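Late entry, evening session. Most of the bench is empty. Finally got around to the prediction I had been postponing all week. Sequence below, unchanged from the version circulated by S.P.
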Amino acid sequence: MISLVIVSHSKQLALGVRELTVQMVHERVPIAIAAGIEDPENPLGTDAMQVYEAIISVFSDAGVLVLMDLGSAVMSAEMALEFLSPEQRAKVYLCSSPFVEGTIAAAVSAAAGNSIQTVIAEAQGALLAKATLLGVSDNLKPHACPMARKRGVSAEKTREIRLTIKNRLGLHARPAAQFVATASRYQSQIQVQNLTRGTAAVRSDSINQVATLGARQGHELLITATGTDAQAALTALQALIVNNFGEDDRLIKVRRVAPQEVTPATEGELLGIGASGGIAIAPVVHYESVPMSIVQYRIENVEIEWQRLQAAIQIAKQEIQGLLSHTYVQIGDAEAAIFDAHLLFLEDPLLLEAARKRIIEQHINAEAAWQTVVDEVANSYYQLEDAYLQERVDDVVDVGRRVLRILLGNAPANLEITTPSIILATDLTPSDTARLDPQKVLGICTTFGSATSHSAIIARTLGIPAVLGVDAKILKVENGTLIALDGESGKAWITPNAKIVETLEAKRQAWQTAQEEAQKQAHQPAITLDGQRIPILANISSIADAQVAISNGAEGVGLLRTEFLYFDCDSLPGEEKQLTVYQSIAKVLENRPLIIRTLDVGGDKPLPYMSTGVTEANPFLGVRGIRFCLENPQLFKTHLRAILRASAGNNIKILLPMIATLAEVRAAKVILAQVQGELRQEEIPFDENMEVGIMIETPAAVAIADQLAKEVQFFSIGTNDLSQYVMAGDRNNPRVANLADALQPAVLRMIQQTVQAAHAANIWVGLCGELAADIMITPILLGLGLDELSVNPQAIAPLKQEITRLTMTQAQAIASLALQQDSATSVRAL
């Protein structure tokens, strides 16, 4: 029998329509709904995956008719078709009939046993009965229903698509950067327009024009593309938007800040904006950005001046790339993406064209030309009605000042804090904030800023209490003056008295006690219901991370990313510096396991001070990981010496990344043996029995896992890279990112093969990819036989809790079923 799927923005509406319809046909017609989204604050919306699952649940060879309300419901239904096989897709029909009346008419017709064509015709003509009753049928003409609506390929080269923005914060800097980066890969001329706000069409290759569209959640965009690859471009942009630019509202770090109850300040208090929670009591250190005075003057050789600006922009890009790498390692992917937007700002063709035009036509110096165009862009942000997008001007100013500083020959501002302090400033840029050390910077207090600025976002991620927008008189206090901050209430105190300090300390203690209570479960071992213990370790990138990991219940460190040491320096870190860091982390762990991954740079994560001058066409397939270390043996030896020396008296293991051949493992072990021999001669102690393991992140390593297992003591599976290499899909390319999914059956089978090879050789195998942080996947990972899991510290508590709810028998059964599925979507549905 023909079945129906109801797609609506409102779950209540869909349930009501389904109930009414079921009553009319007495449940003789299978009806599924796909309605609303999982967001308690804003539940209205549609989800393509929900629609797909609804279709599958009632699929019939007789046909499935999908009825939709409006807007993104149509788009979600269309996207759902893409997940179906061609055979299934041919039997699914999207219809633009009236939502309520059409559903009822279709159900009645289907219950009567009519053909799909008749059911569609009945749905399409559903309004005629009502119109006749009201006496308006003469004015009502039935529309042709697209029987099997699909995206056809037009003969014209100009195409367009309408899409609704669904992610919570709309086209803010990071999604705008992804939009521009995606559009820029195509030859076609692409323009985008915000239909909801009625803006003019803008160029898609301009980060500033795209960002100033003011596109927020629910706004409809019209995207047009003209050129030979127009359809491909629109498809890629559609995938980007439908997938919410990769943002998960459940995990999004751009957290909404609850409205503060404004109370009058008591004596000695200053009221501001609570931008990052927590209590800080410390002496202040003033920070002021280097003043820059721009003088406009006439120049004769315009080409030299243009080249000077281009050179400054190139240096700025290198600085931002270094900052991006630092942020990625020390803070996180989402925060690092802020600086992707900074890089795109410097590549904005409209910005560069405007600066060049001023230099050439007005014969003015690069500083003056650059300052003028940056001011114009900043003003365009200020003129937006959207307060959130207005705040993106901080990023514009940040990048603009960086280029000006380079043009003027000024040294970078020094934000190095030597003693625990609270930073006091007019404002902090995202670049300033990303460089802060939470161990030394206990708080931030500024006279400008907001809770949704990028600086505030970074401060929250770093866990630094911040009060912004405080009265400017606070800037008059001298360095060393004691101040107190409450980042939750948004209050600051200059020289707080003993009673205030006591109150704040009590609040801080109460917060810490609550955190400790919440973490009690996390400090218990993760044991399944049938007695299988699964060690849960942490992935970290610093000493501070190690402390956070232990406080969150980590049973050790399953992955120490040593890159942070190299990205934080202007030159290669020496043996002693590395030794100090590794020993410090081992001390925090108190003899718990510490797996140190050797330097995993190169390719997509180049060290700026070790540039070879060679641009790799595909850095993910280039000189990275173990390949980089083997090409730089002296660097590798220094690295290994520090790790080996730190192993003395500690539970340290070594992990080699990006292994693809036996020769690579053997070459690394030869160098390791050489270093061990040197240390013995020097009578420097180290752990003679230190285990050596390898990352399994290439298909080649899986294919020869049985041979590799004879060379090492353990495997650690890196699912992020393994997924993209197995599926031949770049996880950073939105057009194919859905392929680079660790739940693809091909990837799961690779994990299974690796575990089987390891256990056959009597070695253990762990998994340190972020896949393990998703508790929905936990049964599969346990069922595949993994011996330990390593995740980010915040994921430890929920992961342990999930393990205690399972039996290994259940997990193995689920894993067995997962391996038999035909897609990642099917695995998720399972």
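Two things to note before I forget:
Residues 180 and 544 are 35 Å apart (CA to CA).
The first strand starts at residue 3 and ends at 8.
Will write this up properly tomorrow.
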